């Protein structure tokens, strides 16, 4: 009998196929049940997105900071500390709420601009969980695509203009395009009820927006449509326009679909190693029944390894891989620090005396940076996760939000016991 190699720490190898640690499969089942019961005002929500399309641009002072998000981490010189108290608790009112629902909506007549508007836009994208186990129905009920490397964007075309916003809600580009109602030119400009909302990745080398999901097309909302239908519409509706054509005077950037495959071994191999017109940055797996939900969802999974991504391990603001894993969490009113999940996963707490000493900078909702210590992250058994966290200082408050729990686990596994392409196949 073939001997299965032990993990680097000497423990038996972890089973990934159908594994439930830490209950990722249970979260997938609950998410499917929840979306079947959900009754959201999705068309009104899509219309609000298009109506406030240019509001921040109107108050934009034209600085580079408003047009482009640059990673620039800040740190404080407070002494570090370790804390391991953990648990998973319901969300609380402090800070920006998780975006798995339409909470924090902008209603007609509301006057919002600047940071408040950017924070609202930052909650309008689906955030995939990171793959920490392999779904048992991967080959039959999932699709896969090669994720392009670049800046994730929310793209809206409406009122004869097109605007792309980064994950933190800031404007990346305001430009004319050949998307429906994306430019003030005959044949493109249309009535105010015609607008498009796309989930894209801007690939800098070829100046192309690669469309990885579609939430609204010509005013028709697709949030509550299955991902298999949304991805089909990208492949069929986008070529019906001139948006895929090379840049022109009224079409500054090209839009292109991403090839989608069934997530069986053949499809995964093509997505992993097949030829693509862009730099690959991991694989995206979509449950075929998944709706487009706002916030972190277990029905879309991101996976990477060193062969299909330049960013298998997270890098710092200088592009170097830190010696220790870095984690960004949000400080809550009770002194605990938690992930971006809904409900958030609590991974530690800050001593009350330390909070009082630094009350001016350590306010509820603040993003904090930690490193993972030698004791690592433990998720064994049914108990809450336990993490050995060492405080490093304030994180960049404009990054859009804290890390998700599965990203933290994936990055930890990547350094110790990574999930490989062979295990997925």
Automatic annotation (TrEMBL):
What name has this protein been given in UniProt?
A: Snurportin-1
> Which Pfam family, an example, fits this chain?
SPN1_m3Gcap_bd
Among InterPro entries, the record links this protein to: Snurportin-1, Snurportin1_C
Localisation per UniProt entry: Cytoplasm; Nucleus
Biased composition of type Polar residues is found at: 77-88
Q: Which GO terms describe its molecular function?
A: RNA binding
Query: Function of this protein?
Result: Functions as an U snRNP-specific nuclear import adapter. Involved in the trimethylguanosine (m3G)-cap-dependent nuclear import of U snRNPs. Binds specifically to the terminal m3G-cap U snRNAs.
Cell membrane as a keyword of this entry, yes or no, is no
Q: Which parts of the sequence belong to the Snurportin-1 m3G cap-binding domain?
A: 124-301
> What biological process terms from GO does the record include?
snRNA import into nucleus
- From the UniProt entry, list the residue stretches annotated as the region Disordered: 1-28, 75-111
Keyword line: Cytoplasm, Nucleus, Receptor, RNA-binding, Transport
A GO cellular component annotation in the UniProt record: cytoplasm
What's this protein's family per the entry? Belongs to the snurportin family.
